[in-house]
Amino acid sequence: MTPPVAGHGPARRGLLGGLAALGTAAAVAGCQGSGAPAPEPPSSPGRQPGVTDPQPPRALLLSYDLSPGTRGATGRDAVRRMFAAWTPLLTAGPTGVRDGPSITVGFGPAFFSRLGSRAPEALRDLPAFAGDRLRPEAGGGQVFLQICAAAPAVCADLARRLERAAPGVLRPRWHQAGFLPAAPPGETPRNLFGFKDGTANPSAKEAERWVWLGPGPHHNATYLVVRRIRLATAEFGALPVERQERVTGRRKAHGGPLQGGPEHTEADLFAKTPQGGYLLPADAHVRLAHPRFDGGARMLRRGYSYDNAPDDQGLLFLAYMNDPNLFTRVQRRLAGHDALGPFVEHFGSALFFVPPGADPAQPLGSTVL
């Protein structure tokens, strides 16, 4: 294994001073319950890439705060100049190309208050959930970058180029690299628990309803929930496979639900054993996260795993949706009740508004600044 990447960078260095080794950094991947989306058509005009596009195998997540002097009207002008300088990088390559690089930018709640701008109505800090062990320096942030590509060196190079266009505007808060494990064509990758991740993501048609914001002031925008989750891989791996399957609610060998059928068969919440008990336990992860409890609403999970050290491996949970209250409802059901809970530790959390895409005539952020 190549050397791991640190989880967060020193504030007194340059934005990427701690990232020099990223070209050879290790990373791993997956996503809780439902991970990497199936290949979708290229991003629609006006939308940022890196959401419904095919998911490249490598990712670099970087979270920043605005520098102390970047605030109010003068701060808005500095941020506008930075975004204008970023726009050529954000629009340089074709979207929707498998493994092609993409840069996705989000804004945290404090971004707007610092600049004296009005935040989108649903952009509020996520509440605390039972069992969270959050560390402030491991989550949050005012400006967020999700950089995806075929190789970590490409991600790092793009990050450095964005840094050079942001002198004096941003301070690093945390960063983390991740990757998707290799999988045969057409098969869903597995996470660090050994289960397939990416089975129940919304289709392209469902994404139009549940991921993207419709006509209005924020048309073609979305929201991104980020959770950094450490996984107890050794402890979970020590369980008998049958017990692992009852915890997650899926078969380990092929990813199908416990009632039977191939991977993409819908989990039957009401299927019973001959003795009258439910096949899917009441505390199974798949049951508690099922869209049935939210009127069919779905979030698009686009997660990666990370591997910093033998005792620091886990999940970079990334989920896109047009109503972040969906995540709050799901996580409240999971917190304290999910059989997977003893094997996961949520230590970083953030919510970002992902504005519409940029183009030369309309730089990034022009609809909200």
UniProtKB/TrEMBL annotation:
Organism (species): Streptomyces melanogenes
InterPro entries: Dimeric_a/b-barrel (IPR011008), Dyp_perox_C (IPR048328), Dyp_perox_N (IPR048327), Dyp_peroxidase (IPR006314), TAT_signal (IPR006311)
Domain (Dyp-type peroxidase C-terminal): residue spans on this chain: 188-358
Keyword Oxidoreductase: yes
UniProt keyword Metal-binding, yes or no: yes
Origin organism lineage: Bacteria, Bacillati, Actinomycetota, Actinomycetes, Kitasatosporales
Protein name as it appears in the record: Dyp-type peroxidase
Region (Disordered): 31-57
Classification via Pfam families: Dyp_perox_C, Dyp_perox_N
Domain Dyp-type peroxidase N-terminal intervals: 48-179
